[in-house]
């Protein structure tokens, strides 16, 4: 953006090291999927082992020579490391290999830049890119580090690098202000939903677990779905009517990945806050993945980072159509509450069970009963219809209105509060708390 870089080609050499200092090494297959998702054409995969990264070039001299030979043999113009490289390491490796070098963070940023579609998503990606780029500017400006002198060339007393950093900082500040406005708008929406007692259910999970397919199955939203990593970046929210519970808001969010760059977590905080403020999290898991327990742990790590680890979760084990002899089912905990649902979002098998399980989890705060409203309080009747709380209606001979209601307990208390001390107050006859029988 602000400095010239070598033209990048799609032929790429992938480098993955197993470091003994890391207890749970990353899966090389996921790294290859990330490269493919970015549009790279891997022509060689270099593996290696080290006790610790080399401070100068991350890999040792022998492994660096292997990488250089692979670049020459295949005519590759890009080398991608499955690790986070420091700016100096990236610069030193580029100098040795004479081609462009990208680390895991830069690779994920590139994928995000390709997938962002909304204005908010593009702003979030640009912010993450600029923060990542800020530490790497020097490599592009080494020929302009000195202050210019001479007639017509004297500047304001700062080097070109300093000028560029100032422009970068100004752009970052501008984007942060725009995203802060987005955060405030989202917060207003959350407050409005909270006042209306509308539950928010957020889909979370590892990337490519099938969240968007499940979202489309439940809402008919037509969200973009592909069998690739980070197919969804921009959050989508839809209103869904649940049997015996009423309305809820279902939110589809960006997928998580191992070692999700902190720059991305910060940039996408406005989006991830939808998960952090949800009433219930649907943790979607690829049931066919061999390392699904590890992937579930990675999702928990990101949830902890955004302050959502303590929220109620309902596990959704998706893609059972890829498993042998696996049927849709609901698993319950010791208290009889739904803990997990096994289903296939692609075929729809078990999705009705998921709807029932969500209704059961959300229904704990719902109440049903009969409300008797005198004629002079017809405004209360209109308010109840406005929030879709009325299931049936009947009028008595004296003009009183009988309403069969199903609504959140807090909403009922809020609506009845102004009438408690008045004459001929509405009479509430509770039947049962929905979910008490579960």
Explain what this protein looks like in three dimensions:
The chain is an alpha/beta fold and 438 residues long. The chain has 3 domains: 11-102, Rossmann fold, CATH 3.40.50.11060; 198-364, Rossmann fold, CATH 3.40.50; 366-430, Alpha-Beta Plaits. Helix content is 38%, strand content 23%. It has 13 helices and 15 strands. The chain has a 7-stranded mixed beta sheet with strand order 6-7-5-8-9-11-10, with helices on both faces. A 4-stranded parallel beta sheet has the order 2-1-3-4, sandwiched between helices. Strands 13-14-12-15 form a 4-stranded antiparallel beta sheet. Strand 13 and strand 14 form a beta hairpin. The model is unreliable at 1-9, 141-154, 223-228 and 433-438 (pLDDT under 50).
Largest beta sheet: what is the strand line-up? 6-7-5-8-9-11-10
- What global shape is seen? elongated
Task: Indicate the low-confidence ranges by residue numbers.
Answer: 1-9, 141-154, 223-228, 433-438
Biggest sheet, in brief? 7 strands, mixed
| Mean pLDDT across residues | 78
N/C terminus separation: 58 Å
Q: The CATH topology of the largest domain, please?
A: Rossmann fold
Total number of helical segments?
13
Question: What share of residues are in beta strands?
Answer: 15-25%
How many domain units? 3
What structural category arises from helix and sheet content? alpha/beta
**DSSP strand count:** 15
- As a whole number of angstroms, the C-alpha radius of gyration is 28 Å
For CATH, the homologous superfamily of the largest domain is named as P-loop containing nucleotide triphosphate hydrolases
Order of helices and strands: EHEHEHEHHHEHEEHHEHEEEHEHEEHE
CATH architecture level-2 label of the largest domain: 3-Layer(aba) Sandwich
Q: Return the CATH class of the largest domain.
A: Alpha Beta
Helix content: 25-40%
């Amino acid at each position: 953006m602000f400095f010239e870089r070598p033209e990048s080609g799609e032929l790429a050499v992938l480098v993955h090291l197993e470091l003994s200092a890391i207890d749970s090494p990353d899966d090389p297959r996921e790294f290859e999927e990330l490269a493919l998702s970015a549009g790279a054409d891997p022509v060689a995969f270099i593996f290696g082992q080290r006790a610790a990264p080399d401070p100068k070039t991350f890999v040792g001299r022998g492994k660096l020579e292997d990488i250089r030979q692979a670049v020459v043999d295949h005519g590759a113009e890009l080398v991608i490391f499955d690790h986070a490289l420091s700016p100096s390491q990236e610069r030193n490796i580029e100098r040795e290999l004479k081609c462009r070098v990208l680390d895991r963070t830069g690779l994920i940023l590139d994928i995000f830049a390709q997938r962002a579609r909304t204005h908010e998503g593009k702003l979030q990606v640009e912010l993450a890119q600029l923060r990542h780029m800020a530490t790497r500017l020097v490599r592009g400006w080494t020929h302009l580090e000195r202050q210019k002198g001479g007639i017509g060339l004297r500047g304001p007393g700062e080097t070109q690098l300093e000028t560029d950093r100032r422009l970068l900082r100004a752009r970052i500040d501008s984007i942060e202000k725009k995203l802060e406005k987005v955060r405030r708008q989202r917060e207003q929406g959350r407050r409005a939903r909270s006042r209306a007692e509308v539950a928010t259910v957020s889909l979370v999970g590892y990337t490519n677990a099938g969240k968007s397919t499940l979202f489309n199955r439940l809402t008919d939203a037509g969200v973009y779905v592909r069998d690739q990593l980070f197919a969804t970046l921009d959050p989508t929210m839809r209103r869904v009517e649940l049997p015996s519970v009423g309305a809820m808001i279902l939110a589809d969010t960006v997928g998580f990945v191992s070692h999700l760059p902190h720059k991305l977590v910060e940039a996408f905080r406005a989006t991830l806050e939808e998960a952090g403020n949800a009433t219930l999290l649907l943790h979607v898991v690829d049931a066919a993945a061999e390392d699904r327990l590890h992937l579930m742990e990675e999702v928990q790590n990101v949830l902890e980072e955004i302050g959502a680890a303590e929220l109620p979760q309902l596990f959704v084990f998706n893609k059972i159509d890829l498993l042998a002899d696996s049927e849709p089912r609901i698993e319950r905990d010791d208290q009889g509450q739904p803990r997990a649902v096994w289903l296939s979002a692609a075929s729809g098998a078990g999705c009705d069970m998921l709807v029932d399980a969500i209704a059961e989890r959300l229904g704990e705060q719902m109440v049903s009963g009969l409300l008797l409203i005198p004629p002079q309080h017809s405004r209360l009747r209109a308010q109840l219809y406005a929030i879709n709380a009325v299931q049936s209606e009947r009028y008595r001979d004296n003009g009183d209105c009988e309403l069969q209601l199903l609504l959140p307990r807090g909403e009922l208390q809020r609506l009845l509060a102004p009438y408690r001390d008045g004459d001929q107050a509405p009479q509430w006859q509770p039947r049962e708390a929905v979910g008490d029988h579960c």
